[in-house]
Amino acid sequence: MSQSFRLDNVGMVNRNKKISFTFNGKKYFGYEGDTIASALIANGVHLVGRSFKYHRPRGFFGVGVDEPYAILQLERNNERDPNIRATEQEIFEGLEVKSVNCWPSVNFDIGAINNFLKMFFPAGFYYKTFMWPPSFWYKIYEPFIRMAAGFGEASIKHDKERYEHKYEYCDLLITGSGPSGLASAYAAAKNGARVILAEDKPRYGGSLLTSDVNIGNQTGVEWSEKIITELKSMSNVIVKNRSQVFGYYDHNMLVMSERIGDHLPKTQKYLPKQRLWYIRAKEVLISSGSIERPLVFGNNDTPGVMLSSAAKEYMKVYGVLVGKKPLIFTNNDSGYETAIEFKKNGVNPLILDTRKEPSSDIISEAKNLGIEIKFSHVVVAAKGYKKVKSADIAKISDNKKDLSNIENIECDCICVSGFWTPSIHLASQSGNKSEFNEKIDAFIPKKSKQNENTIGSANGKFTLEETINEAFDKGYEVSNKITENNNKVSLPTVVEKKSTEHDKFWCVPLPKGKSYKRFLDFQNDVAVTDIELALREGFRSIEHVKRYTTLGMATDQGKTSNLNGLQLVSDIENKVVPQVGHTTFRPPYTPVSIGAIVGREVGKHSKPTRKSPMHQWHEKNNAVFVDAGVWLRPRYYKQGNETLFEASKREAKNVRKNVGVCDVTTLGKIDVKGPDAAEFLNRVYTNAWLKLPVGKARYGVMLREDGIVMDDGTTTRISENHYHMTTTTAQAANVLSHLEYYLQLVWPELNVNVVSTTEQWAGAAIAGPNSRALLMKLFPNTDVSNEGLPFMGYKEADLFGIPTKIYRISFSGELAYEVNVESDLGNFMWEKIIEVGKEFQIQPYGTEALSTLRIEMGHVAGSELDGRTIPHDASLEGLVSKKKDFIGKRSLSRSAFTKPDREKIVGVVPLDKTTSIPEGSYIVKDPNAKLPNPKLGHVSASCWSVEYDNPFSLAIIKDGKKMIGQKLFAMSPLKNKTIPVEIVSSHYVDPEGKRVRA
Amino acid sequence: MLYIFCPHCGSRSQNEFAYGGDATVKRPELNKEISDHEWDKFVYLRKSPRGKHLELWHHISGCRQWIKVERDTSTHEIFKTYKATELIE
Ligand SMILES: [Zn+2]
Fold first, then answer.
1. What percent of chain A has pLDDT over 90?
2. pTM
3. Rounded CA Rg of chain A
């Protein structure tokens, strides 16, 4: 199709670069710099979608972020992007877009039947229609609503595009590059402030791009180009286009989304598609401008009805005519600018002005150009289904109640102007209350809440002179506050046409006998009748009316609808608008892609990965890894076709029979130093620490103040005032914070310092009956005999010349040692252990075998110390001192913790000695008892005992000690299993603990 | 996101800190006999005021010091921040 609505030599698009794209599968041409909207209008296309509720035909209403209609779905390199505004998305070669909300096609849409069934879709229809019977919800209502609703379909494929986050600090952030944004940025930058100027559109200048004004003897466009060029050259200024500041958060942090690659066929190398800026600004100037208000009349949602300012921008920026027989319907002077622009381009408009006898510079100019104007006239209703074909117009009485002389006139577009609404969204997000300004019939920000000021038309200043003067002053004032410089730039002279007051009339009454739909919210299909109904049904608060009718709740957040809705409520209620108040604006101002919010934190970048110094050795030796918090730990070392079960059994057996080595680098390690270290540990742990000699380790349990076990581990006295504490892998960070809390806040008088040394040490646990023989070969110069290095002993030694720390501690229940060297030497240590251990049949073992070994020994770990257990529950009461006080001790005497039938850890063995018990199973007396079956407790950990070659589990059950010997049942409703079991001691292997002391 | 002044490091974004609750709670002294009620009050009962609140923040990704922050819980205004042991009038 040819671009039959394109003007010659008008506008700012690049005529030298023709671009093809497809819309609903059909190919169209436009120029570089066009949006989808401008290119489609140039091709005479006005039907682009269907409305949300009634599926009425939808065209274009605006030219930017306020667009309520033209929401499309973009397809790009096999990716889908829903909720794209056609008025914002620039075209690029090969762009594919399609309509949403219509099926099977935009021209013939089945859902449009809703339009004729509208008695079923009154205000609050969600709450009324789909309620009964309840069973209909899943089968009928929900699938129906899902098929009919929504603005497009998100892709379920992985998004291959890159999104970035950026943090920036500045003196002054300015949101919008219209006249007030440019002037204030210029004044502040010249005064030495570090400025960020953000513009949502590709082109800078805002209203200057389309207004017929003169600043400092230049046109608005020339002046804005000059200012932008100069700002860009300054090192203290960041200027960004295609960048929307969408959120104003606490402590002057604003978030901006920069669309870097959205307008390009392919994202540039080294550049992300979008970038999210977190900007902490000392001061903010909100120069977000204003949005034209619609006028309300019959069928005012028909394609071809649009904002008059949009029609003007399509002509001046894109060189596109929105129609060739335009009707301008206005209650103020702005409509005249559009009419004059049409006339200049050889098109004859007709102006309908609701006012009786206005006069101003611009009205005179229109008259002089020979434009036909009908005063005291209104559009009663637009005619035409998929596009405006004509309009019923009428004369309106002075009291604006009665219509007369209704006639039908031909037209192909209706450009409406109901005056201007300041965009106060960011100010409102900042916490600013707003006040109603009678002069402009709109809200403006009242008093700054944070370090922010609103300027220009966003602040209700609608003449250029006012705007520019205010902006220069504010830019200077704010920058002076920060930089204390006094460089003032001189004000340029401003020439503009004077305009006169607007008419407070905005909603055309219905002629007798007619029931045209008059829409307020174009995206959510909220009509005048819906608001009237809501009020009749008793809704009063504007917040309730909003939610009941969905007015202003669409993706455009009511940018064009809110104020007219308020006006209507206040008219019906006979209140003034300020009494009605307006709803709160919340971020984001415009929709933000999920990709931008997530940024780079996807996949393996969503959290850091920690690896031990021996990681490469594990990889080379077929380790299968498991996530342990952010650490990667070998779960087992696969030999041949072994399964996890087979491999872990082999590894555990080898520990019991010969010797094994396990990477324990991930254990948390904390250095505790200072003259009061012993006293501190004595308060932190439940057991006694004052008498631990140098060179000895002790197992300790620490509680939270509520008596629940927080963590366990061994701590070794390295020297008089130096202890080496170990924590579980999972709790390492929490334990450090816990210790710091008590040292800094509760007992600051204790002279102790703590620091994490987890990453400083590489650790290997050597466990099994052959471990001492291996140690003797590894450390020939050190006495590691049972007398030289007894159980819970500590020694420093050298391993082939490297300083090493040996702790004789055991988690596996075997004779065992933990050997630590500096991290950098971890791999050397590991390889030496493996090499020297060969003759003792050493094998590495992973976390699965480690679990098996500890479970059958009855040693507790995270699955028992799960944030619900006290020491008694885990059979650790022997470690609880009766003599001294410690963190959490007072809680242990709470009645719930001292009940005689309190839970206790036990062992569980299946009667058939073959069926493994799923972890998480319930222990019950009678599997057939009436539901809910009273449960005695749960299975916390399961393994295959390598000692006895049968399944073994740990469980925490009520009155556990008395249950030993009883035959009960383990039930797993999830796995649909009921297993007869016997309760045994949790110490299944070596209950006397002879091996560790051997 | 709050901008918190750490008395040791300067102003830093909230994401460097961990919240630590009411800073006016005082742990009962060690080895002191106290009633169940008093202990429960210390462990569990916290006020949730609207307005000024003295609270603990841990500069966990910074200097690792616990600090006290006087903040308005409804406006998020931060009036003053203190070192852990600083005297507060
Ligand atoms: Zn700090």
1. 81
2. 0.90
3. 38
